[in-house]
Amino acid sequence: MVDGKGSAITVLASCTARSLFLLFIVFIVLAVALFRRVFRGKGMCGHGGSSNALTTLSERFAKGEIEEEEFRAKRDVLKSRK
What we know:
There is one protein chain. This protein has helices at residues 4-39, 49-63, 68-80. It is mostly helical. The protein folds into 2 domains: 1-41; 48-82, no CATH class. Helix 2 packs antiparallel against helix 3 (68-80).
């Protein structure tokens, strides 16, 4: 492969291999990100956060960090978002 065609094919093959490798890396990163998001409890649309907020709110009320009136008002807001 002394002529110009041989080296052009080699360069093209090398570029294709690099592109496929980068595409594979991007796929792995996206798969890991999706896996972490789904199993963190948020799901695909970001739902599931209000139950965590309600738990945190209940804990703050139990510790005495907030008064009952504030607890009830915030709880009602959180429940209305479901």
